[in-house]
Amino acid sequence: MAGILVVDDLPVIRSGIIHILEKNLPERGPFYQAADGQSAVMQARAYRPDIIFMDIKMPNQSGLQAMSQIKAELPDSRIVILTAYNEFTYIQRAIQQGARDYLLKPVRPQHLVEVVEKIYAEIVHERRQMKTMDMVKDSLQKTLPVVEANLIENLIRGTLPETETVEETLALLGKRLHRPAVILAKVDQLENLLSVYSSAELQKIYNRMVDIVRETMPEPQRSLVGYSYPARIVAIVSCDQALQSVDRLYALSQQIRAKIEKQMPFTVTIGLGNAYADWHSIPLSYAEASLARRTQSRIASNKSLHIDDVSRLMIDKTGASFYRVQREQELIEAIKLHNLQLALDITTQIVEYFIERFKDSEDFINAVKNNCSELVSLISWAVVGVGCEERSVLDVFHQQIVSLKGLTELADIRAWTVNSLMELFQLGSQQTQVQRAIDQALDYIRGNFSHSDLSLNSVAEAVNLSPSYLGTQFKRHTGTTYINFLTTLRIEEAKRLLRSTDLSINYIAEKVGYPNVTNFYRHFQRQVGMTPAAFRKQEMNWGCKNLESTNETGVLKKK
């Protein structure tokens, strides 16, 4: 409702103010009146007036008390204090409690009208702003699914490498991702669906699929769900809480599959990828989910398959429908074997298969580009699988995907795919060489740790790497530094000798690479938490107790 409420304990004041308002601003009515604070609160609740003129000194409940209560219930109400009291404390309290203005009686009629008009101008302006904001919110709500779908597409394709862009979009959607994994569902026997429904009907069907998947998510604010051409629903889910195990992720996919089968006139086959540390690695999880789904769909539809189960399946490799899956698995195997020529041959064959398959498509070039992009994401995943550092692979992958955007000719797309393979393959080969050097370094350290002069420089020289590069790669591949590894190796050997021999501690120290026994004591106590002598005594006591527990037949009794 609207209007103006006048609150004063004197009838002549109330009627006088209302007379001025009715005469000069009749369109601002209706006009209400109350004789005390309690009545003012009741009238405000009932009529929700735009403006309230409030006296301070009134029986039953003062104007300031009534104003405090009204503002608590109706925070948008504009209250103007109208009183004969010109004391600072009253003015201060009124302003603190949210009074819009403070007028002293008697107030001139013209001034009263000006105050009302000014407040109504503010109200109109605020209402316009609110209407605009509501329109923006409504428009945004309609746009959010599109924003979400675009974000998913960019994440799975690897086309959004800027952290700020992704985080800002997630914040706009009110979403968070932690250890994301991809769930990919595609309609079975899509040809039948396309022959029955129009484009408009298909869009409604796909939107309903998105809604079903979104409704099934156990943590909606920690997942993204959207449509991805053709006839695929992609969900990116957080796997650090409700979905922290593969079994739970698989169970969720089964729920999705069952709901779609029950509510839609078709079934879907679902592929599941692994969870990764952050959103940068989503293309790898997507490659896994795509491979798992394609593999499962060639065996039996309307089922779910996790990437970890792909290699354990017995697959009938006959028929043209299996061609892509078979070639992809051969490509992965070629990468594992570091056979570049074989990998190039298979990649070329797969690209030609894409060209032949989509030659009659309305969006031929984009269809080939999208499938070549998926192929490169699969190659990236395979390269990571042979031990290459994940972030290095993703950096190359992102660079390649960015360069794909502007290509419109088949020859360029072919060349891009082959070049992507070679870039990633080279990265994998380099990483394999590094891994081989690290393995050699580990063997060298294990064979020479007793030499007190063994150093990072001498190990680096033995494996033909620079000391600084070896130090960096050693930690990356082993998870510890060279010096920590060497120290642990020496102390473990010292513990074995202390436990199994009666050699002196000085001799043992020198034998494991510590000619300075004080230095040996310091490292041993830091690693074990006690001195070598205390460790030997503890081990001897433990051995004696076990001997006492041996029964007459020589069998060690359980403690």
From TrEMBL:
<feature type="domain" description="Response regulatory">
    <location>
        <begin position="3"/>
        <end position="120"/>
    </location>
</feature>
<dbReference type="InterPro" id="IPR011006">
    <property type="entry name" value="CheY-like_superfamily"/>
</dbReference>
<dbReference type="Pfam" id="PF00072">
    <property type="entry name" value="Response_reg"/>
</dbReference>
<keyword id="KW-0804">Transcription</keyword>
<feature type="domain" description="HTH araC/xylS-type">
    <location>
        <begin position="439"/>
        <end position="538"/>
    </location>
</feature>
<keyword id="KW-0597">Phosphoprotein</keyword>
<feature type="modified residue" description="4-aspartylphosphate">
    <location>
        <position position="55"/>
    </location>
</feature>
<dbReference type="InterPro" id="IPR041522">
    <property type="entry name" value="CdaR_GGDEF"/>
</dbReference>
<dbReference type="InterPro" id="IPR018062">
    <property type="entry name" value="HTH_AraC-typ_CS"/>
</dbReference>
<dbReference type="InterPro" id="IPR018060">
    <property type="entry name" value="HTH_AraC"/>
</dbReference>
<dbReference type="InterPro" id="IPR001789">
    <property type="entry name" value="Sig_transdc_resp-reg_receiver"/>
</dbReference>
<dbReference type="Pfam" id="PF17853">
    <property type="entry name" value="GGDEF_2"/>
</dbReference>
<dbReference type="InterPro" id="IPR009057">
    <property type="entry name" value="Homeodomain-like_sf"/>
</dbReference>
<dbReference type="GO" id="GO:0043565">
    <property type="term" value="F:sequence-specific DNA binding"/>
</dbReference>
<dbReference type="GO" id="GO:0000160">
    <property type="term" value="P:phosphorelay signal transduction system"/>
</dbReference>
<keyword id="KW-0805">Transcription regulation</keyword>
<dbReference type="GO" id="GO:0003700">
    <property type="term" value="F:DNA-binding transcription factor activity"/>
</dbReference>
<protein>
    <submittedName>
        <fullName>Response regulator</fullName>
    </submittedName>
</protein>
<dbReference type="Pfam" id="PF12833">
    <property type="entry name" value="HTH_18"/>
</dbReference>
<keyword id="KW-0238">DNA-binding</keyword>
